[in-house]
Structure formats: C-alpha cells, structure tokens
Amino acid sequence: MNTYVSPTPDITSLRTDSDRLWEALMEMAKLGATPKGGVNRQALTDLERKGRDLFIQWCRAEGCTIRIDNIGNIFARREGSDPNAKAVMAGSHLDSQPTGGKYDGCFGVLSGLEVIRTLNQHNITTQSPIEVVAWTNEEGCRFPPCMMGSGVFTGELAFDAMMARADADGVTVSDALDAIHYRGSDNVSPSEIKAYFEPHIEQGPILEDTDTTIGVVIGGLGQKWFDLTLTGLEAHAGPTPMNLRRDAMMGAAEVTQALNRIAFDHQPHGRGTVGCMTLHPGSRNVIPGQVKMTLDMRHWEPEALETMGQAVAAAVEEICQRHGLEYHLEPTANFAPEYFDKACVDAVRQSTEHLELSHMDIISGAGHDAMFVGRVAPAAMIFIPCKDGISHNEIESATPEHVHAGCNVLLHAMLNAAGIVSSVGGTGE
Ligand SMILES: [Zn+2]
C-alpha cells in the first residue's frame, strides 16, 4: 500500500489486462479440451463442475461473495459503496456444445471477471455493486431447452418442469445438479439488476465481413419453431407409378423449398431453416410413408414473423393436398423479438466510441441468456467477430485483439452504469 494517496487515475484511460483475460480463457479451455482445439464441457457434467469450481476460486480470490440459486446459476459479487444500489451485472455461460469452442459463453463470463480484477487492481470503488453471473445450461444440448438457467431465473421457464428434464441416459437436471453439488439455496431476484451486459462472439459472419471490431447488439430475432409430420403411404419403389404415389418425402422437399422462399421474401431479417428430418421407413427401395421435420423461422419484426408463420402453414396445406398427404404442424417455440434497453445499448455504443473502435449496430440471430434477462431488467450485448463466423464447432476462433476490445467495451459500459465513487492510487497487486 502506498503511504500517500496518489491522484485519482483517469478512468477514461483505464484498460483491462489483455494477457490476463487471455490466460483465463485458455486455462478454462483446458477443461474438456478436445483434440481439434475445441471444448466438450456440457452442462452439469463433472467437467463443467470443474469449470464452475475454477470460476468461483478465481472470484473468491478477488474478494467476491458467491451466491448460487436453485437452478445452479452462479453470481459473484463485488460490493459497491451504496448498499441499496442495484447491481450492474455481466455474464454468460460456461457450458459448451459437445463439439464446442473456447469462446462461446466463456468470453462473457471471464470478461466480467476481468472487469472485477481490473477494478481491484486500480482500487476503484463503484457506487453500484458489480456482479458476474454464469448461467446454467445455456446450450441445451444435454438437457433441452437452451437458456435454461436464465429462463428459470427470469420466470420464462418453469422450475419444476426444468428440474425434471432428462438427458439421453435418463439423468434429470435435478439429479445432475445434486451430483455436482450445485443445487444452491440463495435467492437472487431479477429486481436486483440495474443493468446486464453480455459480451459474446457474434456466431455469424457480419462483423468479420465488414471488418468491424464491435457489434452493438440492439436486440435479437424473434423465433417460431414447428415440428411437422407428413404422412403418406409407403409403397414399393418399383411397381408404384409416379402418378399414384403418396410420397411424404416429396412433400418434405417442397415444404423445405417453400420455407426457403418465404424467408427470402422477408429480407433482410427473415430466416428459414429445416434442421432435422427423419424418413420412415428409411429403405432405399421404399417410397417414404412418413417424414418428421423441424421448421425454424426468425425475424426482427413481430408482424413479419407472424406473416411468415401463416405463409408456411398455407404452403404445407397446399403441398399436402397436392401430394395426398396428411400432416400435423405443431408449434414448439414462439419467442417475440427482443429489443434491448436503449440506455444499455447506448452505454455499449458510447464506450465503443470512447475506445475509438470500429462498430456497427447488429441484431443477434441466435438466442442468448441476455434475451431472457432483457425481459425483466435493462440488458444489452457486445459482439466481437469470430473467425469465418463459425461457432458450435471446435475450430471456433477469436483473436486476442478482439477479445481485449470487447472486454474494454464491457468495462466502460459497466462503469458508466455503475458510477465511480473513488479510486485511489497505485496499480495494486
Ligand atoms: Zn453462447
């Protein structure tokens, strides 16, 4: 400790430590590291437990208090000067896809930790507490649905129903939480949040394509998901003439094309994807009698998303009539577009401008914990580019420069929202 109080350092020139953040990312990536350079650290496994333990160990070393709620979300808190002030929060998730990358999720959580390390190093007191959160099971690959922890936290997903969700081996979320000792009893309420910021890799190609460092995320696309079952009649591929077939696969092919056309008709924001398809009976010389497929539609405007949904339903009806098929079209998800809080978005944009980084407004096409948090508290996101726009892949990659830039944008957005009380000399230890 210095024997004198040095002048208050210029907060505007404050920067996070790029090497320290990078080391933390690489250290975390060792847990579940895959041969191709990625990560397999699925939610509530023992490997993910190690990631949680490591995160908590790092936060405790910075003097944070830890709270864990009933779905295993971890909150690490650095107190501010005002005991009644709401927290300025940052976070994301530590779980990964089976063939995931090092940055999806961890970049957000560890950037939040790096902000706390930076504030400690420079003895900076904020008015509001600073809190970093690691949400449980964002990926949803072991236990669907995705964004489970933030969904339960915000009341968008029912706690009891989520605890009963089972993985492919029949292990429930409840069992898995107990097995890794992360079923917490702390009550953390969305009403405690003043502002929530989530840094994340873009998971798309736009920033890289436009050579832009920071995406100021103004919100997320709305989503409509359906399960579609088309039923025709299986018959021998040889003796059955073309005009007498009820070929479910022909219906599926035309529905796929229709969905694609409808998405193109609703540019620039429309998206349409058939991601799964199973054919029954699945024999090379049998006309498929049944096809089950998924439809995923997204748009930025609620009316357009509604129109897309109606257009797809009409196309399914028409196609099935023409091919003599029966169908069942079942909605499985319906999320309105998320428009982030203007003050939070402005805080991100201002800190980007302050840091003189290239930036653009961007809309997230993927779901993130921030979308749920944004429904109950002011929220925004910070995107950085990822190589070739690829994520959910072991080759997922981001540069140290972009990681550092995104973390500094987070630092200044959080300081802006939290308010500085004092900062005393030295660079600390
Ligand atoms: Zn993610």
From TrEMBL:
Highest taxon, organism lineage: Bacteria
Lineage of the organism: Bacteria, Pseudomonadati, Pseudomonadota, Gammaproteobacteria, Oceanospirillales
Positions with a binding annotation for Zn(2+) 2: D104, E139, H392
Cofactor(s) demanded: Zn(2+)
Amino acids binding Zn(2+) 1: H93, D104, H200
Keywords: Hydrolase, Metal-binding, Zinc
Annotated InterPro entries: Amidase_Cbmase, Bact_exopeptidase_dim_dom, Peptidase_M20, Peptidase_M20_dimer
Cofactor annotation comment: Binds 2 Zn(2+) ions per subunit.
Protein name: Amidase, hydantoinase/carbamoylase
